[in-house]
Design a protein that fits this description.
Elements (H helix, E strand, L loop, with lengths): L1 E5 L6 H12 L2 E4 H10 L3 H11 L6 H12 L8 E4 L5 H13 L6 E6 L2 H15 L6 H15 L1 H8 L3 E5 L4 H12 L1
Parallel strand pairs: 1-3, 1-4, 2-3, 4-5
Helix pairs in contact: 1-9, 2-3, 2-4, 3-4, 4-5, 6-7
Length: about 190
């Protein structure tokens, strides 16, 4: 099973990703982890990415897609995977689609966790207070939300057109949300 998990900051993607990968015995792939592995491994791609990261710039799509292509062909991906935080934009989604065609794989489900923006902001502000996270101020959270809605939300239409998108209510208790997702996947 190959899944893309999408949703705005604070909707609980990380928590739900863990529940899904545990349930289906697939691996959790996040671009952050893949980038760090390439950089730590001092691979050719990792060295290129590090230059952008050290300069405080986003790693270009072409580089991310090359890393993703390498990662998706590794042995532990054969049983399936959940992509978390990738793709974030239409060009990344198109690049991923091209990679999957090339390596003879397909995405089975795109789960988009949805939630009211005000509720998410309140949730993240509370998390910031409880955990001491300096990036969970209302101003920073609203900025991250705006970036998500501008760049990532068009992916919903992209995957809806491909009949892969399943929108799941991301508000409620963790078990309630997990059960909603499992109803889609089972």
């Amino acid at each position: 099973m190959r899944i893309i998990l999408m949703g705005p900051p604070g909707v609980g993607k990380g928590t739900q990703a863990k529940n899904i990968v545990d349930k289906f015995n697939i691996i959790h792939l996040s671009t952050g982890d893949i980038l760090r592995a390439e950089v730590d491994g001092e691979t050719k791609l990792g060295k290129k990415a590090k230059k952008f990261m050290d300069a405080g710039k986003l790693v270009p799509d072409e580089l991310l897609l090359n890393m993703m292509e390498n990662r998706l062909q590794q042995e532990d991906c054969k049983k399936g995977y959940l992509l978390d935080g990738f793709p974030r934009t239409i060009p990344q989604a198109e690049g991923l689609e091209s990679i999957l065609n090339k390596i003879n794989q397909t995405i089975d489900y795109v789960i988009s966790l949805t939630a009211d923006e005000t509720e998410l902001v309140n949730r993240l502000v509370l998390r910031g207070k409880e955990s001491g996270r300096s990036d969970d101020t209302e101003e920073v959270i609203r900025k991250r939300q705006q970036v998500y809605w501008r760049l990532t939300s068009p992916l919903s239409d992209f995957y809806r057109e491909r009949k892969l998108l399943h929108e799941v209510d991301g508000l409620g208790t963790i078990p309630e949300i997990t059960n909603r997702i499992l109803k889609v996947l089972e």
